[in-house]
Structure formats: C-alpha cells, structure tokens
C-alpha cells in the first residue's frame, strides 16, 4: 500500500491537522488511534504526516528486522542533544556502534552484581526516614533512592540527592526540556535539521557549512528569558562538574570503581581505542539521565498499584519476609520472582517512556505499507501494552501475566518498556535489579496506603510517564502493626 493510501486518523483540522489533540494529551491520542484496530494509520502534526504502528509484527520490523533502515528522530535529537550530546540514546552510526561496544560490558551480569549493595543501602536510608501515619508523595522518595543509587554507582558519591548541585542542575535542565517538548520552536528546530540532513553532501567546502548549520540547530541560541538563562547556567554546571570528575580520575590513575572510571578505562578490543573526554561526558550524562528518571517513575507507579491491590501487596510482602534478616542482595533476586512480576506488570501499565519514534533513512516497506525516506514512525508502548489480543483485560493489574510460561508465549514486541533489538536499553538489567531490590527492601519495613486526590495519579503527557500530581500515600510501618496485621500486610 502506498504511503498516501494509508488511512488518516479522523479529526484532523485544516492546516493544524491533529496537532492540538497531540499536544493536549499525547497518551490519550495514542490510545484513540490504537483502538481503531488498524495495523497502521497516519496522523498530521504541524504539517507532517507521521505513521503510527499498532501491531507487534510491524514494530518488530522497525526495531529489529529492518532496524538499519531507521534511526532516532530529529525531534528527539533536537530535544536532548544539549544535555547528552552524542550519548547512546540519540547517537547514530558511525558513532553509535563503537560506543555501544564500549559501554555494554559495563552492564553485563557479573558487573551489575556489584551495584546491588548501593541499591539496598539507599532504599534502607529512605525507609529509615519514614514514620507511621506519615502522609507523603512516594514519588519524591523513589527519586531520592534512584538519585542516590546513580550517584553512588556512576560518581562514587556517598551522599547524593536533589540538594546536591549536580542533581539540582540536572532536575532544572529536565524541567526545561519537558516544557519545551512538542513546542513549535522545538519542531521548527527539528525540521531544519531534517531538511539539511536530507540534502545530502554539499559540494566541496560547502559541506562543512552544512555541518556547521546542523550543529548550530542542534544547540541553537536562545532568547535571554529567565527560564533560558537558568537552563544555560544549569547545563554549564553539569559540564563543569562532570569534566572536573573526569580530570580527577585521570590524575588519580583510574583507581576508583565507579562507572565514570570504567567509562574512562573502556577500550575497544579490536581497535584498542577508548573514549575522548567529550564522549565520556556524553555517556555519563546519558546514564545519569536514564539511571534515575525512568527508574524512579516506574517504582512510583508500582507502589501506587500495590496500594490499590492489597492481595498482590500481601503476596509480595510474604515473599520478601521469606528472605530472613540482612540487606536484600544480588543473591536474593532468584528468591523474589513475584516481586519481579509486580515490577514488570507495573511497567506494562505505565511504561516509563510511553512513546518511541524512529525516522526512515531510506525508502522501505513495513508489511504491506510503503514508507518513504524521512518518514517519522511512532510506536507507543503505552498503547501496545493495552491491546486485548496481547494482554486480555489490559487495564487490570495482574502480575501473573509475567510468569515465565506466559512471557514465553507472547510476541517479543508485545512488551516494550526498554524497546527491543539492537537499540534495546543498555541498562535494562540494571533497572530490573534495582526495581526488585528497592521494592523488597521498602516492603520489608512498611506498606503504603492510597492517599490524596485520585486524579493526582493520572499519567502526565511528558516525554516520560510521570504521575500527574505525584503519588500521595499514607505510610504504615509494618513493625507498628499488630502481628496479624503485619503478616497480612
């Protein structure tokens, strides 16, 4: 089927297309398109025709089968380049492949086992600060945990929270990025990058000019508003802090055991080459971003769901209590299968990144559909995880969906919290381990009851799936309960 013959989702307005619907509530719009039952449809956004895919088979073609025909979109590159440069999230060939080879060993099974102690320690620190009957936003507490963990394993920081200058600077930059996501200025920036890239090489020295124009558009000058000035100062703080830590580790002979040191020491087995300071900075910022934001969000949604489902909560607590005394460690993970199922089911209902995009770098075909070069393809884990054919009664919280037999029977692209294929999240095993350890450590000490306004728990349409208004809960310390209650809860 030719691209122009692919059905356009109803409701497009003259000139604006579906832009208003997308910006008003991206997630709801993705669900509406998914519920048409069409394998694929187009929608119109600020003058462009984007392709939405709605089957795991078509998603497989994009992420796995024909992955070489697609790359991360210019929209994502325009949004994140100033923060993470050419880090793994947005880099492309020829940069991405050697970088992936250098970074991947840092997250292999034997390596990530060393990080379990920091995960358990930070979960215990946060649990120690809780008091019986306390009302709080559990999302804030999970950010403390995740920020502490990433600070420990990435920068070898003994104390690390939002009051830290580096952490505060990152939070400021992320807030600015989320505000700008989907804005007209960001889309105009991405369009300019795409047009220059689509022109191909220019003759002679003019090609250098084209590349400089692309670089300028990746990090454009900003109007001197208060928000933009704060963003620039925060970005400069991140650069200065990370560069000083890089220089400190080089002077010290790379003796520390944190991830930053491992990045500096990483070498390609074939070429023997390592990373420049700029590459290390970009990958450190990528790991800093991915290592706390998405994990904190996933843990927050998990506590929200457990508080609403006391039977699942009780089963998780019983499993955790079976571990006995002592910190929850790497060796305990195999004894926490239900805890892992709970975390996976939470990320099915609330995937931390609800929408993925790719851009065709050549004319290609996806199933019966022709996809011209330059087409932006939209994949939504949030919508995919709610297809009844893949997950019966999709709105129900049922951790049993992730028992090994049920997982093995599903299409490999039915479940996409970390994407799949060559661009699968390099830290997925790190995130899953952290989820298990933090849930088990905190559940051993307390339980959370639903609190606050139920509307606060609705997902907000940002680049990541944050709970709108946080996750307000009431704390019940398990040791403060009567024995029968503690067992049941």
What can you see in these coordinates?
- A hairpin with a 2-residue loop joins β6 (364-366) and β7 (369-371).
- With 489 residues, the chain is α+β, with helices and mostly antiparallel strands.
- The strands form 3 sheets. A 5-stranded mixed sheet has the order 1-2-8-5-3. Strands 4-10-9 form a 3-stranded antiparallel sheet. It has a two-stranded antiparallel sheet with strand order 6-7.
- The termini are far apart.
- The chain contains 20 helices and 10 strands.
- The longest helix is centred in the middle third of the chain and has 32 residues, at 277-308.
- It has a single domain, classed as Cytochrome p450, CATH 1.10.630.10.
- The chain has helices at 19-24, 26-34, 56-65, 74-84, 96-103, 109-112, 116-128, 138-155, 165-180, 184-198, 206-218, 226-251, 259-265, 277-308, 310-321, 337-349, 381-384, 404-409, 428-445, 483-488, and strands at residues 40-45, 48-53, 70-71, 135-137, 356-360, 364-366, 369-371, 376-379, 446-450, 472-477.
Question: CATH homologous superfamily - what is it?
Answer: Cytochrome P450
Q: Structural class of the helix and strand makeup?
A: alpha+beta
Q: What is the string of helix and strand elements? A: HHEEHEHHHHEHHHHHHHHHEEEEHHHEEH
Mean pLDDT: 89
Count of helical segments?
20
Number of strands: 10
Q: How many distinct folded domains?
A: 1
Based on CA inertia axes, which overall geometry fits? globular
CATH architecture: Orthogonal Bundle
Strand content: 5-15%
Please describe the biggest sheet, giving its number of strands, its sense, and whether it closes into a barrel. 5 strands, mixed
Radius of gyration: 23 Å
N- and C-termini, Cα separation: 55 Å
Poorly predicted tracts of residues: none
Question: What is the CATH fold-level name?
Answer: Cytochrome p450
Largest sheet: spatial strand order: 1-2-8-5-3
What's the helical proportion of residues?
A: 40-55%
CATH C-level name = Mainly Alpha
């Amino acid at each position: 089927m030719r691209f122009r013959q692919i059905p356009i989702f109803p409701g497009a307005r003259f000139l604006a297309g579906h832009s208003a619907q997308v910006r008003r509530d991206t997630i709801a719009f993705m669900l509406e398109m998914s519920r048409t039952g069409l394998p694929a449809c187009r929608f119109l956004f600020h003058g462009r025709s984007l392709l939405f895919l709605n089957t795991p088979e078509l998603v497989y073609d994009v992420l796995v089968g024909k992955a070489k025909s697609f790359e991360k979109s210019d929209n994502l590159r325009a949004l994140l380049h100033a923060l993470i440069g050419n880090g793994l999230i947005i880099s492309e060939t020829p940069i991405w492949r050697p970088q992936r080879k250098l970074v991947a060993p840092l997250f292999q099974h034997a390596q990530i086992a060393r990080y379990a102690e920091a995960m358990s320690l930070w979960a215990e620190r946060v649990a120690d600060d809780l008091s019986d009957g306390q009302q709080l936003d559990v999302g804030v507490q999970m950010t403390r945990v995740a920020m502490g963990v990433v600070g420990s394993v990435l920068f070898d920081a003994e104390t690390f929270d939002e009051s830290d200058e580096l952490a505060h600077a990152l939070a400021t930059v992320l807030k600015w990025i989320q505000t700008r996501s989907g804005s007209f200025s960001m889309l105009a920036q991405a369009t300019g990058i795409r047009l220059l890239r689509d022109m191909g090489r220019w003759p002679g020295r003019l090609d250098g000019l084209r590349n400089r124009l692309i670089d300028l558009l990746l990090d454009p000058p900003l109007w001197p508003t208060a928000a933009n000035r704060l963003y620039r100062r925060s970005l400069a703080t991140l650069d200065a802090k990370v560069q000083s830590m890089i220089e400190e580790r080089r002077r010290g002979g790379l003796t520390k055991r944190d991830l930053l040191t491992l990045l500096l020491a990483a070498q390609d087995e074939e070429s023997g080459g390592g990373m420049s300071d700029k590459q290390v900075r970009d990958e450190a910022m990528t790991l800093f971003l991915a290592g706390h934001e998405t994990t904190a969000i996933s843990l927050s949604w998990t506590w929200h769901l457990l508080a609403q489902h006391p039977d699942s909560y009780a089963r998780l607590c019983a499993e955790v209590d079976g571990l006995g005394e002592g910190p929850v460690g790497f060796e305990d993970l195999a004894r926490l299968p239900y805890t892992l199922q709970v975390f996976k089911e939470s990320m099915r209902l609330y995937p931390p990144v609800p929408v993925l995009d790719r851009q065709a770098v050549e004319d290609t075909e996806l199933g019966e559909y022709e996809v011209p070069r330059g087409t932006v393809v939209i994949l939504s884990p949030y919508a995919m995880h709610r297809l009844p054919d893949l997950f019966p009664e999709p709105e129900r919280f049922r951790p049993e969906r992730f028992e090994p037999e049920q997982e093995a029977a599903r299409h490999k692209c039915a479940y996409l919290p970390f994407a799949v294929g060559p661009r699968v999240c390099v830290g997925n095993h790190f995130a899953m381990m952290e989820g298990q350890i933090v849930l088990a450590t905190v559940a051993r000490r307390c339980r959370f009851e639903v609190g606050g306004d139920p509307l606060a728990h609705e997902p907000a349409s940002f680049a990541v799936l944050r709970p709108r208004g946080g996750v307000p809960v009431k704390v019940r310390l398990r040791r403060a309960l009567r024995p029968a209650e503690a067992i049941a809860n």
